[in-house]
Amino acid sequence: MRAVVLVGGEGTRLRPLTETIPKPLIPLVDRPFLHHVLDHLARHGVHEVLLSSSYLESAFGAFLSDRRGDPAITWITEASPLGTGGAIANAAQHLEETFLVLNGDILTDLDLSGLVAQHRRNAAVATITLTPVADARPYGLVTVDEAGRVGEFREKPPEPVPGEINAGTYVLEPEAIRDVPSNRPVSIEREVFPSLISSGAPVFGVVSAAYWMDLGTPQKYLQATFDALEGRVGGLSYAAPHVDPTARVSVRAHLGRWVVVGPEARIGEGAVVEDSVILRGGQVGPEAKIRQSIVGPAASVGGGASLDGAILAEGAIVLAGVRSLGARVGAGQTLEA
Ligand code: GTP
Predict the structure, then answer these.
(1) Would you identify the CATH topology of the domain 2-217?
(2) Is the CB of 53 under 6 A from ligand 1?
């Protein structure tokens, strides 16, 4: 079985972190998120994955040369963003059989083998995994009939209603994307699926109770990290807090349970870090306080500073003593008092 993993989005909701790191390459606990996705695919017998991205394409080079083992990766050129449907169609020129598609920003322990088996039992052209959420506003709802056939894709509801949403994991037959135009970006959610459904093609939905979290926003990225630390995600097991062996944390610093300190990061004396991720080479000065924040690679927080809900991009600097709620500091930028 082969799979297409969608990794070419700009990740605007995770800016400024995604100014220099594509969303799928942001580490989740101990390694770039895409490793988790690929390992999950390998556990379900996927031996080849097709990837493409026109956004920060060169950043994927180092990842690809570090990656070992199953699945093998084929990189496909995507000269300009093709949208989710266009990127799948572009990759699927190389595919002649049933294949999986995964959004590259979703943490899930979904039973992919069971999903493919269900797709075959239904003789579907497309099978869409659905996941229940308490508030469907950011997503839009998908309805299925008693036989599991998808009835409609509804626009994002204005009220916070519970419901089943598109989980960004599909099984497709090559014919599902055969007619996708190649001269403009095409969305699979907004164009390809609705047009298949209205043409009467067998599009099925499978509701899954597996762990599911999209990492699209800072809050969700942090929540997925905390869930992984708590052992809520099948296949992942970590000590909490997670401190990389090459990090240096003062014995007089306090780390909460939901904290990741990445390789070569430094946490100074008297610093307090809670519910936060400090990425590779991030520095937290003495007596600084960090809550609900992401400190990007080689970013630094000066002594005595206090941050809540902050996102610091690669190499960002927060000067000593700064107090801030919800700061966004771009790559190499400085936040002053
Ligand atoms: P936002 O800008 O914050 O909405 O994030 P995003 O750009 O990742 O968009 P979204 O979350 O809707 O994308 C869903 C999945 O599709 C993600 O895994 C993206 O990486 C991927 N994706 C979105 N657009 C493209 C594209 O044009 N080409 C490719 N190859 N992948 C895409």
Answers:
(1) Spore Coat Polysaccharide Biosynthesis Protein SpsA; Chain A (3.90.550)
(2) yes
